[in-house]
Amino acid sequence: MAKNTSRNPRYAALNAGGNAETRRLIDASNRLAEEVARIFPSEPDIADRHYWLETIINHVPDYIYAKDVEGRFLIANQVTVADNGLEAMKDIVGKTDFDLHPPQMAKAIADIERRVIETGEPIFGIEERAIVSKGRDRWLMTSKVPLRNKSGKIVGIVGVSRDISDRKAAERLLEGQARLLEMIANGRPLDAFFRDMILLIEALMPGIKGSVLLLSPDGRYLFHGAAPSLDEAYCATIHGVEIGPRMGSCGTAAWRGEQVIVSDIQVDPLWDDYRELVLPYGFRSCWSTPIHSRERKVLGTFALYSDVVGVPDDGQKELIAMAAHLAGIAIERKQAEDRISFMAHHDALTGLPNRAQFEEQVAEALEALRGSGQWAVLAFLDLDNFKLVNDTLGHAAGDELLKVTASRMRASVRKSDMVVRVGGDEFILLLNGLPCERDIVLARLEDIRRAIAAPMQIEGRSLQVTCSMGVACFPNQGKTVGELLANADMAMYRAKELGRNNLQVFTEEMAAKAHEKLKQQEELRQALARQEFFLQFQPQMNLATGRVFAAEALLRWRHPERGTVSPAAFIPLAEETGLIVPIGDWVLRAACRQARAWQDEGLPPLIISVNVSARQFRERNWAAHVAAILTETGLDPFRLELELTESLIMQDVPGAIATMHELQAIGVHLAIDDFGTGYSSLSALKRFPVRRLKIDRSFVADIPTDLDDNAITAAIISLARNLGLRVIAEGVENQAQVEFLRQSGCDEIQGYFFSRPLSAPDFEALMLQPRFSIHSV
């Protein structure tokens, strides 16, 4: 029994729509009948009506057919008949799908039609793959409704199928594009992306086989990228093909940078040298499109092969252009990822592996050598006086020097070894699998040092650069990467201490010294917090008047275990670690506070002299910091004198002069300490806003017996007087030195001849004594 669907809301809507469509068909039928009546005034007979109906349905491009309840064709239009391989309607009437198609496909059709007949419910818009392909992948949208007789009994089905292949192809293309773009975004491997892209194009263009070739970095050859449907032997044959003006379709397209369409390989001259290679595979046409970057640089080619002669139609050209565009995006994305990965693991300037890559790989290298009876040698090296090249020739010359040095090191080691740039002018060498013989290891390393030190031409100048190298061997001098690096680093600093341009192998003594240095550094840090520092003050006396006019503040350390520690024992370490900055601030503040206290106690006018370290002087806004300390302690600026060493000033003459002028503007006096040891030029000296030169004790120690020191000291005094500067000599210890200095025109002296450094109370007591006689012994 047929099911009544009139109460089913879904089918009521369909019937409503159907009724509207029916009315439109009736109206059209009435108009057609009127036109027929006008042409044929007499009433047409049944035969004419049958002819007209058959003519109408045969002009419809869709499949239209009717079947009985057993699935036998009752009627079908000409498209249905022809696509099932028959000639006329009479040939299909009475047949079932089992007579026309494979059993599995016929059964699927029969099951759907049986459901329509049994339920009485129509089925609309079924999307199904066409059984008859016509040489291409086809899709149909099918609707099937019950066929009823005049009494309403279901006697079969009526079916209509429309070809929607173009729409399905467009949908598949959109889905494929989305999937390919997702693969690009997710960074999928290029070969997987190319494979899916080619399979998509092949599905949309039946009979076509695709291939992607990638251009070599030097732009001369094409290498296999992907070709899932091509014979592997053919792919291997064209792998590495050279590009050129007559190199088949792909080689020529890459050469020209434009699409090359070869419609017939057998006659096209571009294939003259490759025709015999391709014909065994049955290819007759090949269409190759260059894959471009955004800057129109050729990255590779996308080729389509066909076994028939021909050229792509407009739709196929659009597919080819789309595929080539997506391939270009994918290749550029992969190249960008490769560049990012390279930059993350390599030094941008030299191209050497960086510290990150070294640490990733070195552990594996050491593990491979463990128990092998061989050594891995880790060398930490630093170029000597590299800063001088940068400062004198500029950073471009410095960069070129680093690149040449890196190239020389790379050429001096084996492929299994590593050369790493740590940063600046520091490098790491890892030599793998060397014999456990010290002489062989040292000989290899000295060969590398000699290669580095060979003359090189930088910006038209011949330069030589040496290096200081520290060495540690695995497993004897370190069993982990961290131990080897630390020990090689210690050895390198030992090489620098010994005058640079040498190689030092790590020893336990170095480790002991390093540990001691680390301990001293921590003690020094704690000394500031525990207030273990104190000041002593050494008087400075005017030679003409015999009056003490100034005191130099000298830092001392009262160590809880070692007692009073000389500045020479800890100031270099403070400079190296940067602790000199907070320590120097403490000294400046304490000295200013003491000077203000003496002033408040009514002592004679006094200048307090404080030494300044290079690290302090380079601090940002240091002059403002000095002004803040003066305000905090209440000391008048003109009662403070800052002693700057020549070497400090000469590190950055323009910057030093600018800071000195800022200090002078505050009202602070400036002096050059240890004059004669820092190689300052006279042109620079005359620009320094200083009031006093301090002759280094190394010149004073042997006067008046050493004629050279006499001449140098007299020259410094004469120079200072000509520049309008006062001169003070330090390290004065005897009357003979005093007399020479006074006769040479020296203004002031400082040293044991007059007084050792004193505590604050002792200095105050000294200031209250009668005037000192410069003629005393």
UniProtKB/TrEMBL annotation:
Xref: SMART domains: EAL, GAF, GGDEF
CDD domains the record matches: EAL (cd01948), GGDEF (cd01949), PAS (cd00130)
Residues in PAC domain copies: 124-176
Alphabetized Pfam families for the sequence: EAL, GAF, GGDEF, PAS_4
Domain GGDEF: 374-508
InterPro entries, sorted: Biofilm_reg_signaling (IPR052155), Diguanyl_cyclase/Pdiesterase (IPR012226), EAL_dom (IPR001633), EAL_sf (IPR035919), GAF (IPR003018), GAF-like_dom_sf (IPR029016), GGDEF_dom (IPR000160), Nucleotide_cyclase (IPR029787)
Protein name, per record: EAL domain-containing protein
Organism of derivation: Ensifer adhaerens
Lineage, highest ranks first: Bacteria, Pseudomonadati, Pseudomonadota, Alphaproteobacteria, Hyphomicrobiales
